[in-house]
């Protein structure tokens, strides 16, 4: 558990480093390619059957390096495909988000079955093969990204040297021992997260000081980061308090089969995948609606769906209090609402950050957003989930879940009101 905690913390920290390198040295396209190659290499190392724990640490360190380069810069690269005022930008990010959820559904099934039938090393190797195929698909469409190459970006023109992709692979591999050490000394992860958060706040402050003409837009992005963190504190309950509720109190019997609790985790991914394509087409802004108002109203609608999902779970818990058997159908409906809500949060925030059009900071801001909505939100979600530590099947326990879900829904709906007020205040000013 401590190793997983350290790995999760480092995975969310490194996109800031990857964004900084892409903004100043690599360019987004090179960063994406190098990151994908490193993640493929890391999974190949995991796929090598070994009894030594050292190979596990080495592989995870390489994957962390690759993830830092890939995760934030794939969003920045997509943002470069659109002009500043292109109305298709939000829809493009919705498509990217939906495509990512296709992988989150297919990968656990394919790799999990391979691990079950042939061993974990085959499952990890299959993940590496999948990543390499994805990279080949990306490279086959390189003609669409010619105008986004890093050497053409204004922030890179003053750089005295530009390494090829293989050179940056070697540079990042030289950083792998640092992450290897942090994984071994995994009790450092909490302190590292606190230090990085302070460093990120200092970076945002410096950007505001150096670019006063963008200060208003930067404050909006900071507020979006806070709102996104709140959203993911709620969304991460799916892996903790909501999963416990499903395991103990939901009637999971379907025909002659007990639906595994873990399978419910895929409901929101299916909802995102199903709705993402349609929403990408619908997310075409009307000329009469101001951009700043539109962004905040989308965030408010996402939180409204999240709050509605929690209220539906609370209603389900109330109905199940009589016999301790809550409805599986209502559970799926609530989780689907929460999954649909994601399409109004991260894609909108990513589109807004890339719309800022400030040379040399887009990757860093994207990495900071991922730090806030990933590592910080996960930590806060764990604190919130401690309110539902009761695991015994009893009337008291299910009542506690009902109260918890109602409380989360009420707080979220209250935040929706605040967000709508902020939206109209920002639009009017």
TrEMBL record:
Major subcellular site: membrane
Domain (Major facilitator superfamily (MFS) profile) ranges: 1-146
Transmembrane segments: 6-23, 30-48, 54-70, 91-115, 121-140, 161-182, 188-205, 217-235, 262-283, 295-315, 327-349, 361-381, 411-428
Coiled coil region boundaries: none
Record keywords, A-Z: Cell membrane, Membrane, Peptide transport, Protein transport, Transmembrane, Transmembrane helix, Transport
PROSITE patterns: MFS, PTR2_1, PTR2_2
Membrane topology: Multi-pass membrane protein
Record Gene3D superfamilies: MFS general substrate transporter like domains
Annotated GO CC locations: plasma membrane
Keyword presence, Amino-acid biosynthesis: no
InterPro entries listed in its UniProt record: Dipep/tripep_permease, MFS_dom, MFS_trans_sf, MFS_Transporters, POT_fam, PTR2_symporter_CS
Nucleotide-binding among keywords: no
GO BP: any one term: protein transport
Gene Ontology MF annotations: peptide transmembrane transporter activity
Location of this chain's protein in the cell: Cell membrane; Membrane
Family statement: Belongs to the major facilitator superfamily. Proton-dependent oligopeptide transporter (POT/PTR) (TC 2.A.17) family.
Protein name: MFS transporter
Taxonomic source organism: Klebsiella variicola
Lineage start: Bacteria, Pseudomonadati, Pseudomonadota, Gammaproteobacteria, Enterobacterales
């Amino acid at each position: 558990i401590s190793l997983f905690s350290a790995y999760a913390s480092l995975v969310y920290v490194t996109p800031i480093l990857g964004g900084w390198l892409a903004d100043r040295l690599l360019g987004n396209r090179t960063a994406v390619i190098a990151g994908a190659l490193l993640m493929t290499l890391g999974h190949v190392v995991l796929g090598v059957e070994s009894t030594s724990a050292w190979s596990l640490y080495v592989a995870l360190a390489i994957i962390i390096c690759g993830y830092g380069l890939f995760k934030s810069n794939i969003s920045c690269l997509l943002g470069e495909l659109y002009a500043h005022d292109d109305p298709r930008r939000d829809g493009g990010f919705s498509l990217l988000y939906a495509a990512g959820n296709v992988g989150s559904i297919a990968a656990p099934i394919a790799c999990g079955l391979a691990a079950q039938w042939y061993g974990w090393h085959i499952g990890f190797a299959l993940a590496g093969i999948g990543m390499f195929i994805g990279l080949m698909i990306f490279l086959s469409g390189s003609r669409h990204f010619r105008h986004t190459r890093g050497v053409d970006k204004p922030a890179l023109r003053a750089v005295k040297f530009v390494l090829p992709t293989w050179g940056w692979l070697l540079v990042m591999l030289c950083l792998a021992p640092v992450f290897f050490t942090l994984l071994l000394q995994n009790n450092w992860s909490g302190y590292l997260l606190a230090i990085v958060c302070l460093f990120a706040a200092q970076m945002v402050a410096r950007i505001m000081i150096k670019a006063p003409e963008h200060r208003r837009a930067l404050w909006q992005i900071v507020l979006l980061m806070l709102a996104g963190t709140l959203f993911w504190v709620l969304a991460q309950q799916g892996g903790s308090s909501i999963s416990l509720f499903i395991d103990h109190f939901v009637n999971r019997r379907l025909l002659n089969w007990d639906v595994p609790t873990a399978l419910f985790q895929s409901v929101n991914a299916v909802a995102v995948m199903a709705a993402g394509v349609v929403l990408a087409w619908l997310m075409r802004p009307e000329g009469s609606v101001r951009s700043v108002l539109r962004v905040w109203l989308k965030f408010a609608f996402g939180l409204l769906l999240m709050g509605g999902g929690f209220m539906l779970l609370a209603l389900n818990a109330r109905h199940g209090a009589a016999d301790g058997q809550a409805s599986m159908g209502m559970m799926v409906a609530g989780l689907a609402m929460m999954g649909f809500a994601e399409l109004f949060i991260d894609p909108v925030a990513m589109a807004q950050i890339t719309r800022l059009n400030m040379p040399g900071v887009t990757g860093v801001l994207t990495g900071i957003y991922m730090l806030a909505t990933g590592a910080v939100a996960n930590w806060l979600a764990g604190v919130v989930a401690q309110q539902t530590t009761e695991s015994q099947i009893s009337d008291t326990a299910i009542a506690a879940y009902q109260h918890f879900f109602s409380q989360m829904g009420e707080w979220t709906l209250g935040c929706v009101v605040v967000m709508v007020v902020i939206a109209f205040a920002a639009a009017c000013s």
